[in-house]
Every structure is written in C-alpha cells, then in structure tokens.
Amino acid sequence: MTEHMKIYEQVRAVPPEALKAINGGRLKGMSDINPMWRIKMLTEMFGICGIGWKIEITDKRLEHGGGDEIVCFVDILLSVKVDGEWSAPIPGMGGSSFVTAERNGIYTSDECYKMAYTDAISVACKSLGFAADVYFDKDRTKYTHDGDAPQASQNRPASTPNQSTNQQTKKPISTTAASSNGPFELATENQVKMLRVKRGLAGFKGNDEINKFLGLTLNSLTELPKSKVNTLIKYLDENKKSA
Q: Are 123 and 190 in contact (CB under 8 A)?
C-alpha cells in the first residue's frame, strides 16, 4: 500500500451494519449508507470534530424545481488534520427536497437542510475514498463476486436476470435528447446538482434558455445527455450574474 492510498484503503469498505437496502421509490434496489458511519470514521482517522476535522458551511439556498416543487442545496468545505497540519478544504455539495408534490398533496420537509448537509458531507468524504467499494462498483471488492453484479451500489441498482442491462432506458428522457444515433449516457446525479446551481446563478428559472441554446426539449436536467454537460457548464458560467 502506498502512502497516498493509506486513508483510502482504510475507509473504502462499509460494514454491513452501516448499509441499508432501499426498498421503495426511485432509489429502489440501491443502498443507503448510515451517515453516522462517516462521522465515526472521520473521528477514528483524524480525531475529534473541531480538532482533527471540521466542516464549514459556505452556502445554503432554495431553488424552484418542476411545478410547485422546491429543492434546497448546501455547500460545505471539509478540512482534515494530518500530521498536525490542516488540509486544503475539500468541497462537497448536497441537496434535498423542501417542497414535494406527492400523491396526497404538497409535502413540506422541515429537515431538508439537515438532509442536504448530510448529503454534502458524503460527497466531500467520497474524495477521501469513503465508501469507495459501494460507489466504485468496477473495483474488485468484497461486494463483488466472479460473474456477479455488485450486491450494494449507491450509484445504481444491481441487475437481475429479469431486468434490462441498460438501467438508463428506464429513466424519463426527452424525445429530442434521445434522438441521437447509438447509445448515450445521461448526466450523473452530481452533475445535475451542479448544473442546477449554475442555472440558478445565471438567473434562469427553468430550462427554456437551456433548451434554446442546446436545441433540445428537456423537461428536467436529469434528461441531459452526458455529452452536453461541459458545453452547458461553459454556457451557464458565461451567463452567470454578478453578485
């Protein structure tokens, strides 16, 4: 093990007791990682919170989603102390729903910022290798067996014989976005979160300007082809409003 991989190797595996299967909703078939596991590992690796590791909240905001829905985002900087020296801040961005349109009506969450904060911590910790075995299912881990799909993946559901091998075909996509020849990938969850932030900074309330620029008919940024992500990032950065 190289010195650079020391922390990664110590935090890559998630114990079974910290993993919980998601049995319903859009994330059915994926795994949820107990957030206290990350806090425990940060403390084991670096020391007490505030002394060996610390988090700074740099931004929190609400943005309008589709229809009456509102989402919240929290940006953080995670710093850890190694050999008596503080690291450069490690960024993390998390999101959660504030107002959601559900079957029985509109639901407002009073814990959205806490959930977004927890999500942001997971993103920052990922840069250090936390839960790498769950996220990086192509790596050889204890969750992988010869010829088997990963048993636990927070990024995508495990395949079964009765499921399509292309999970992305089950996602709602716009007609225009899917009209290109051959298979394509959709923007990742983290890319979509980042684009939503940049869209808000550009002052765009919806996707009209984006659709006009890209020549698409996106109902949501989750339908954006991955090949268009960098082009859209550049466009939104160029249209960012001055503070």
A: yes
Angstrom distances, CA of residue 228 to CA of 39, 66, 190, 191: 36, 21, 15, 11
Domain that holds residue 107: 34-130
Residues 178 and 224 in one domain: yes
Mean pLDDT of the chain: 79
Return the residue matching tokens 């698409």: 216
Sign of the C-alpha dihedral computed for residues 114, 119, 122 and 124 taken in this order: negative
- 84 lies in a domain? yes
pLDDT tens by residue, 112-128: 999 999 999 999 999 99
Look at residues 130, 155, 176 and tell me which one is the last residue of a structural domain.
130
Contact call for residues 136 and 181 (beta carbons, < 8 A) = no
Q: Give the H or E element holding residue 231.
A: helix 229-238
DSSP 88: P
- Cα angle value 46/36/91 (rounded, 5°): 60
- Are the C-beta atoms of residues 133 and 139 closer than 8 Å to each other? yes
Type and span of the H or E element at 62: strand 53-64
Same domain for 117 and 43?
yes
* Ordered alpha helix ranges (H), 12-111: 35-46
DSSP string of 132-167, one letter each residue: HHHH-TTS--TT--TT---S--SSSPPP-TTS-S-G
What is the model's pTM? 0.56
